[in-house]
């Protein structure tokens, strides 16, 4: 199916989100839709998916003009939208998830489990997928959950699939499994809109690309005719620094030392230290134990053995409240589950850590709360309209900055950042990198946990590589390169 979106315009009040946008997708083509957070990507795809209606413009499928009043009409026309938060129910088997909302029933009115199981198995066999239709979704890893979502779209005869950040939470082997599925879709003439901030993946899997900036298409073409630096420049409107860490930091006194820290089955005998003014990277493969290690340091993982020293004094950390009082800040890996509170507004999310010191006789000193948040907002260049707006109204990059703001307000001595640029575009990444380096220059000890070698190289003074719950090596200088870190992370 060939798709053409012509002259699409969409505004929300005085905010012009899309300004006469043209977008096209050929049959069996994988097209990357790129741009910074807030560029208009989601709005454009929500129009295609029937969630929103355009103010102006047309949509054509195989030369026929169509319009969608709701998502069901878009799906009925062969367009499926797979969101970043997968729409699967963990407590149901795969085959029931495949038929959610359109369950097969017997004449008696009871669910026809046998027929749903059989149809699911036939589809999996046809696609060469080794997934048990009777397996509980909760037993699948993230890549197979993505594949189940894609398979469900195909079962509903989708000819176009929109994938929003499909690899954000996947390991490298899982990403390759999803890419194999996308290659299969390409052969079956299914078109894919691939929304991602990971430009290396775009270069590997996509045929074409379209870049939006401030609601306008600023570049499009064949992936083979461009490069990562060119696409990054198109996205942000200026050159993006892709060099390694050029900071000449001066490290101070030791802030954190771990001696033989152990918590089975996650990590064991971990010893390390980090100094004031230093950015220490900790990397490896997903599941290597680094997140559990530093959640333990932050008092969020329960009992452990071994010793923790803060500023050369032994401490036993048993709660996050105690960790905060000791001067430790922690930005969690999963922003949407653990970083933001969706029922709170922007101001409340950005100041929740420091509320105790803003409170007197049980009442919040609103002026102090607002002043402190706005100080951080200006320093972090958070793009927002109103303090009272929902945190979910912000782009991913700006949500991440709000989460960062609440910890910076606490003036931590040690700041632990787990996957700090998750779901963040190229321009916002650069801003966050600068913020991290500024913190280190101010004497904060910063620990960055990340699987992406390029981010570690770009950010860190040195890095520790973890393998199966242990620190297997330290890298710095010339040894801190992608090949060496991957070799160590895989047990080499």
Strands in their spatial order, largest beta sheet: 6-7-8-3-9-10
CATH architecture of the largest domain: 3-Layer(aba) Sandwich
Task: Name the overall outline.
Answer: globular
Number of domains: 2
> What summary fits the major beta sheet?
6 strands, mixed
**Please, what is the average pLDDT?**
87
**How helix-rich are the residues, as a percent range?**
25-40%
Fill in the CATH topology of the largest domain.
Rossmann fold
Q: Could you state the CATH homologous superfamily of the largest domain?
A: P-loop containing nucleotide triphosphate hydrolases
Strand content: 25-35%
Instruction: Please identify the structural class as seen in this structure.
Output: alpha/beta
